[in-house]
């Protein structure tokens, strides 16, 4: 039995700001089918197994349940317990570097995760610890907090170790995979006979009400029917996740295992030759199960039962049965049909979404598997970690595989949304294999390979192999082998499916506070219940009538149509977004879009055009100085824009060969930037089984082409900011190392005497104009091709000779500047977050308007410093001196050292951001928070650093949006409150929103729709609350005279007035202008609650005056005409007046400025309002005898009708004044929200749980 708490219609994030994990991907054709998101289907259990070692130790045979929930089905580092007893003592899901961490079996039989670090070190607080011997991060920080006076040496040593450990964990690639687990603690349960008896007795004696309580609150069910026991004797395991979700896990035993991620090269070569034997495969299969992403889909009856047992549906059924008992058939049938149709449609959509997801996620194929030295064709579901498979072209990967031999080019668009081919390289070289197999060959070095660090060799499940080259064997019979690393839900694709099925639980204050408001209404209903019982009993009514009428008050105070009213605004917003070509897979996020305060943008492909054009080449030459003894110096020449006339031989060779391009279907494919550079050389790539070389034409057409072959290739990696190749010229057999990358990085790697003196000046000239600049360098190579790739790369990319710049032109999209201007006028801070050069990023930021013309800019630069702990120090350079160089930035606080109120911003590079972030975690210094407030351009940011930036902005209490287009943005898109992916094929499911219009004009549209949806939701909730309280007041007054509204009266008010108004109010469109103000995200706020209370008091006051004033009229009588005393003056008067009160409230709440358009712009609402107003006026002034008789109304004197109309006008005027007064109050209270982005950060930064009062505080350079 699984408890799901993800059914919140408004389950968004509050100011605490929870984040999503970094599991990115895309599923074609699924975008539009997921219009209502998968949060409602999270009750489906997903099957998987834990992760054993490739060579398991000898232990007792244990079985594991094959359908574990996702909280237990993530591949994390897990250690096997070697104790003889079956009690789970320690489950380590960390990186395996510590033996003291992981899960701890506490004294209260709960299992929780501890950091497990030695004293003096600390790790990020992945999970909170509970009791036992586990220790929390806060406790560790207390242990390492020492007095400077008492032990300064130990103080400094511990703090240095503390920071180094944090940096180590921050750079740990495996940490990204651990995010999926998110387990707080686990508790073992066993069946209890006494509890079973009490369970059934409570259900029988409460007529099934206890069953509903147990169903809604699963923890009560567990604690009654089960008892807490040790894991060895448990039948059920309760898993508490970090986001407060709980899952139950039925198992006989539980044995986590650690996946072997480190292999020696000799072991890998043995596996390439032999593969796993049958015994090893059977052992692995016992723990892992089948390699298939398959999850059970609940049957239609079970899904229907879950819909029927939902609290709102139960309340609607209660209302229907009660109304049927009161012979209120028409409205009861209407509500029943609405509830049934809604539940059926929801059921159909949930099941269709599950079936669509299962169809896309499930994949099976035949695979050539090497087992016991024999290649066999087996089904992919039989694969286990450690299996050796033979790869082939146009083959879709059934699991995650480490490439052992050869080279593969893959299409990863299924995961990243980018159709750019990605090249993967083997972790074993041909030289390694030959050296190992031929004992006479010297030089084999049996080092180890850590799979967690071999991402360039990892082939993800679900991706397609487009091309294979190389491999083991001879001639054309070369085989490319890979080792299965992850299977089933442990694969990247499996984690993506889990992230859709089980999204992280989040909270939005509107939904939580709406439940509180419903609780208040329940309290009012109980008061009304007591009053009605007392009054009706005193009037001598029979018990049945008393009970029915008292219970009917509950359905009046809490209207059954309330759930529909809470979601109608979001539904219409989704329809409008779809028309704007913005597709949504998470509807609750729409409301959150209305709260956005900070918008982060990627640069290339988002703010600028996707493609880059080659602007020109700026090469270097050696110039002879006038002083002949001084020799020559390096200088830049003129920019060459015609590459055909370019005579720098080596530079042209570099442009033609230093890339990751390949020929697929007779077309050069790869990164568009590299394609542009390559095509400019008019070279040709030749690829076949026998050879792989590049033919480059000479500038002199009379000379033959130069052919270049590859010796080694190192692809571009974000953390290195460069790529390199080792090539050999066939004409003279000379070898070279060609390197291409960021100007900052290559300047460090190049020989100083090859760098022109005006290097930085020339770079600034181009970058400040918005050009993208790549540096190029080379070195002659005469060394051996070593087996150690890291060592080889280090040698080939050091002591380089600088060649010059490649200048690329990246045009800004026409919609970028006006969209940025719209957002800034709405007081939304805009931030650029890119991997490009800081000066290029600054230039683009200025052109788009992210950086204002009068802004004072400081750029952080990481310089080397021998006295610093980590060998570097941050200096802040003033790069906007035209604004005056008298401004100085205080490096210790990142604030201006003067009282100047001028706007200033920071340009942050990735290394600076990383250093400040690590120092913040180590010391708790507010310098990092000040950087978040003032940072406006973040350059040279890796994908992980982009995600951290988004998460840290959320931590300080901001609602953050991210807009990007590439794979490097997936983590940030998932982490942000609102992630918008720009994709023509709707190909990125990493983000909740996808715009097929590939510019940022979709951002204001989404924000306006979010604000409109949020404003409509608030107004509908207010309207439904007012409707219920007005009708409640009317019924209470009628109970005092033993009367009640007739069925046709209820029907007219509920179905003719309220229902269409609620539906069409949700269709109100957003304002065309994005205002500075943002709608409140809180239902329980002074303005909203105050407005509601005053409106209620006004309506009650008018009804009270009318009730008593009517009874003073000379023509008034208390004659009982019908059995239920419906036809009388009081009932007719209060019914007629109540209809107008509903219309008055609808009119006053229709003012939605500055978020919603006026009432008259909503044609359906305006027409409905006019029709209901006209019919109500006809009932008041032009009644016919047939209408009065049919509606159970009594003819009112004309004078009294005119008096009622006067009351109606007075009520309208007073209610309008009340609403206008609160509008002016809110407007006046928001006057401080002028166009000043710094006010976004005016709130106090929330307490960071990672930082305690006892954290070590050190000054940071």
TrEMBL record:
PROSITE patterns: ATPASE_E1_E2. It is a multi-pass membrane protein. Residues 39-53, 96-106 have a biased composition (Low complexity). One of its GO terms (cellular component) is membrane. SUPFAM superfamilies: Calcium ATPase, transduction domain A, Calcium ATPase, transmembrane domain M, HAD-like, Metal cation-transporting ATPase, ATP-binding domain N. It is an enzyme of class 7 (translocase). Its main location: membrane. Its EC number is 7.2.2.-. Residues 1-106 are annotated as: Disordered. Residues 77-93 have a biased composition (Acidic residues). It is found in: Membrane. It catalyses: ATP + H2O = ADP + phosphate + H(+). Residues 1-10 have a biased composition (Basic and acidic residues). Residues 186-267 form the P5B-type ATPase N-terminal domain. The chain crosses the membrane at residues 197-217, 328-348, 514-534, 554-575, 1020-1042, 1048-1067, 1088-1109, 1129-1152, 1164-1182, 1202-1225. Residues 366-497 form the P-type ATPase A domain. Pfam families: Cation_ATPase, E1-E2_ATPase, P5-ATPase. It comes from the Eukaryota. One of its GO terms (molecular function) is P-type transmembrane transporter activity. Belongs to the cation transport ATPase (P-type) (TC 3.A.3) family. Type V subfamily. This is Cation-transporting ATPase. It comes from Polysphondylium violaceum.
């Amino acid at each position: 039995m699984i408890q799901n708490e993800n059914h919140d219609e408004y389950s968004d994030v509050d100011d605490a700001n929870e984040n999503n994990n970094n599991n990115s991907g895309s599923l074609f054709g699924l975008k539009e089918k997921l219009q209502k998101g998968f949060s409602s289907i999270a009750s489906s259990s997903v099957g998987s197994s834990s992760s054993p070692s490739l060579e398991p130790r000898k232990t007792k045979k244990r079985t594991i349940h094959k359908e574990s929930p996702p909280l237990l089905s993530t591949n994390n580092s897990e250690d096997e317990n070697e104790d003889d007893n079956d009690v789970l003592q320690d489950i380590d899901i960390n990186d395996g570097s510590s033996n003291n961490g992981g899960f701890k079996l506490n004294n209260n039989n709960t299992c929780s995760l501890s950091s497990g670090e030695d004293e003096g070190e600390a790790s990020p607080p992945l999970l909170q610890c509970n009791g036992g011997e586990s220790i929390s991060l806060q406790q560790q920080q207390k242990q390492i907090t020492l007095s400077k006076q008492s032990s300064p040496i130990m103080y400094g040593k511990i703090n240095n170790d503390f920071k180094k450990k944090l940096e180590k964990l921050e750079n740990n690639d495996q940490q990204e995979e651990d995010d999926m687990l998110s387990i707080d603690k686990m508790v073992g349960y066993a069946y209890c006979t006494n509890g079973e008896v009490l369970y059934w007795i409570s259900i029988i004696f409460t007529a099934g009400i206890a069953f509903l309580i147990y169903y809604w609150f699963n923890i009560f069910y567990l604690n009654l029917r089960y008892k807490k026991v040790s894991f060895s004797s448990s039948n059920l395991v309760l898993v508490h996740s970090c986001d407060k979700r709980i899952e139950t896990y039925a198992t006989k035993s539980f044995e986590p295992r650690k996946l072997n991620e480190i292999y020696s090269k000799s072991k890998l070569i043995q596996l390439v030759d032999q593969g796993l034997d049958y015994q090893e495969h059977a052992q692995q299969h016992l723990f892992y199960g089948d390699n298939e992403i398959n999850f059970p889909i609940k049957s239609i009856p079970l899904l229907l039962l879950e819909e029927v047992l939902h609290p709102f549906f139960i309340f609607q059924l209660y209302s229907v049965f009660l109304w049927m008992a009161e012979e209120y058939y028409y409205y009861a049938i209407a509500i029943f049909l609405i509830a049934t149709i809604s539940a059926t449609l929801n059921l159909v959509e949930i099941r269709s979404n599950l079936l669509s997801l299962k169809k896309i996620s499930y994949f099976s194929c035949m695979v050539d598997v090497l087992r016991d030295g024999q290649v066999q064709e087996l089904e992919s579901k039989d694969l286990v970690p450690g299996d050796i498979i033979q790869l082939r072209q146009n083959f879709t990967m059934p699991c995650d595989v480490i490439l052992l031999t050869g080279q593969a080019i893959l299409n990863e668009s299924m995961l990243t949304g980018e159709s750019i081919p990605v090249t993967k390289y083997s972790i074993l070289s041909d030289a390694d294999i030959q050296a190992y197999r031929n004992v006479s060959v010297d030089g084999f070095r049996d080092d180890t390979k850590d799979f967690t660090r071999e991402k360039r060799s990892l082939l993800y499940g679900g991706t397609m192999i487009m091309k294979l080259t190389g491999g083991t064997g001879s001639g054309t019979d070369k085989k490319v082998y890979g080792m299965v690393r992850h299977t089933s839900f442990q694969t990247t694709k499996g984690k993506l499916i889990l992230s859709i099925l089980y999204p992280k639980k989040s909270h939005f204050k509107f939904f939580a506070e709406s439940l509180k408001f419903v609780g208040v209404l329940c309290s009012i209903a109980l008061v009304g219940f007591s009053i009605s019982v007392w009054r009706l009993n005193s009037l001598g009514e029979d018990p049945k009538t008393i009970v029915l009428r008292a219970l009917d008050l509950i359905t009046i105070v809490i209207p059954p149509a309330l759930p529909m009213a809470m979601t109608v605004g979001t539904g219409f917003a989704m329809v409008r977004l779809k028309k704007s070509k913005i597709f949504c897979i998470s509807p609750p996020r729409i409301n959150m879009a209305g709260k956005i305060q900070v918008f982060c943008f990627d640069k290339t492909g988002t703010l600028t055009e996707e493609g880059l054009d080659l602007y020109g080449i700026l090469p270097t030459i050696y110039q002879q100085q006038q002083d002949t003894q001084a020799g020559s110096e390096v200088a830049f020449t003129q920019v060459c824009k015609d590459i055909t006339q370019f005579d720098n031989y080596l530079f042209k060779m570099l442009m033609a060969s230093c890339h990751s391009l390949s020929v697929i279907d007779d077309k050069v494919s790869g990164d568009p930037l590299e394609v542009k550079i390559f095509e400019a050389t008019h070279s040709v790539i030749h690829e076949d089984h026998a050879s792989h070389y590049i033919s480059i034409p000479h500038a002199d057409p009379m000379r033959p082409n130069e052919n270049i072959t590859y010796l080694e290739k190192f692809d571009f990696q974000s953390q290195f900011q460069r790529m390199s190749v080792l090539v050999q010229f066939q004409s003279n057999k000379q070898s070279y190392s060609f390197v291409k990358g960021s100007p900052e990085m290559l300047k460090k790697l190049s020989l100083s005497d090859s760098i022109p003196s005006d290097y930085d000046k020339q770079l600034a000239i181009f970058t400040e104009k918005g050009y993208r600049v790549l540096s190029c360098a080379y070195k002659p190579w005469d060394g051996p091709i070593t087996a150690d790739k890291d060592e080889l790369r280090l040698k080939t990319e050091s002591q380089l000779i600088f060649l010059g710049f490649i200048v690329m032109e990246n045009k800004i999209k026409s919609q970028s500047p006006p969209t940025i201007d719209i957002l800034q006028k709405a007081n939304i801070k805009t931030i650029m977050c890119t991997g490009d050069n800081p000066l290029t990023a600054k230039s683009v930021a200025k052109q788009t308007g992210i950086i204002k013309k009068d802004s004072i800019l400081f750029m952080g630069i990481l310089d080397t410093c021998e006295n610093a702990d980590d060998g570097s120090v941050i200096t802040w350079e003033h790069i906007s001196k035209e604004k005056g160089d008298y401004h100085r930035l205080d490096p210790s606080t990142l604030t201006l050292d003067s009282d100047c109120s001028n706007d200033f911003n920071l340009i942050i590079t990735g290394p600076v951001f990383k250093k400040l972030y690590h120092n913040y975690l180590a010391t708790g210094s507010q310098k990092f928070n000040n950087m978040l407030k003032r940072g406006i351009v973040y350059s040279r940011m890796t994908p992980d650093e982009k995600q951290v930036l988004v998460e840290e902005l959320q931590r300080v209490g901001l609602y953050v949006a991210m807009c990007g287009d590439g794979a490097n943005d997936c983590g940030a898109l998932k982490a942000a409150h609102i992630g918008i992916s720009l994709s023509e094929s709707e190909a990125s499911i990493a983000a909740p929103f996808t715009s097929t219009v590939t510019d940022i004009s979709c951002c204001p549209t989404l924000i306006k729709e979010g604000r409109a949806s949020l404003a409509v939701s608030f107004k509908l909730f207010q309207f439904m609350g007012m409707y219920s309280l007005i009708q409640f007041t009317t019924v209470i007054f009628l109970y005092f005279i033993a009367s009640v509204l007739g069925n046709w009266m209820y029907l007219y008010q509920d179905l003719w007035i309220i229902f269409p108004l609620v539906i069409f109010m949700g269709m109100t469109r957003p304002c065309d202008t994005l205002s500075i103000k943002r709608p409140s995200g809180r239902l329980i706020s002074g303005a909203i609650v105050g407005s509601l209370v005053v409106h209620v008091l006004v309506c009650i006051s008018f009804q009270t005056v009318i009730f008593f004033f009517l009874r003073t009229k000379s023509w008034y009588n208390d004659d009982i005409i019908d059995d239920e005393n419906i036809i009388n003056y009081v009932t007719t008067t209060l019914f007629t007046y109540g209809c107008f009160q509903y219309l008055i409230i609808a009119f006053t709440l229709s003012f939605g400025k500055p978020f919603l358009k006026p009432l008259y712009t909503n044609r359906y609402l305006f027409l409905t309002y006019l029709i209901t107003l006209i019919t109500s006026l006809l009932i008041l002034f032009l009644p016919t005898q047939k209408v009065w008789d049919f509606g159970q109304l009594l003819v009112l004197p004309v004078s009294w009708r005119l008096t009622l109309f006067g009351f109606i006008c007075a009520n309208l005027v007073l209610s309008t004044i009340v609403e206008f007064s609160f509008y002016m109050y809110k407007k006046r209270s928001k006057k401080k929200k002028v166009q000043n982005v710094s006010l976004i950060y005016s709130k106090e930064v929330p307490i960071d749980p990672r930082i305690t009062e006892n954290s070590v505080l050190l000054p940071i350079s």
